[in-house]
Design a protein that fits this description.
elongated
């Protein structure tokens, strides 16, 4: 397995996963509010071909979606915690380089890093490689397969 490639993917997806930690609970609350608005199924209606009625189906679908979102929230929390823990092993400069080049990439970030760190472009890439190696080692315990 290419651990460095996996580490790059983790860093590139970090911002979106962190945002999901805010969005998922809001979506769960929205579904909970919607579930309380679903009227109860009438007990005297007999399904035509053994299926449930529309209200019952909507309620079951709502419950299943909330369960899936709870699972996704738990996974996202663990995922973000693991990345955060690996990032704490890096120096402030290494974190800055990985944040600018992978987590929050933007045009001109290499030049910006050159100015902030007082180094040339080649040194930025050397620091990136060193920081990525340390992050990969902290996250996966291995760098090469």
């Amino acid at each position: 397995m290419d651990w460095k490639r996996e580490a790059k993917d983790k860093l590139r997806n970090y911002s979106a996963r962190r945002t999901a930690l805010e969005n998922i609970p809001e979506e769960i609350r929205r579904l909970e509010a919607r579930a309380t608005g679903i009227r109860s199924a009438s007990a005297d209606g007999t399904p035509v071909r053994g299926g449930g009625n529309g209200r019952e189906d909507m309620l079951l679908s709502n419950i299943a979606e909330r369960d899936e979102l709870h699972l996704q929230l738990k996974n996202a929390q663990k995922w973000v915690e693991n990345v955060d823990r690996a990032m704490t092993t890096l120096t402030a400069g290494e974190r800055l380089v990985l944040e600018r080049l992978y987590i929050y990439p933007a045009m001109g970030n290499v030049d910006r890093l050159c100015g902030e760190l007082g180094i040339e472009k080649s040194a930025v890439y050397e620091r990136r490689d060193k920081a990525l190696r340390r992050f990969t080692l902290a996250y996966y315990g291995a760098v090469e397969s």
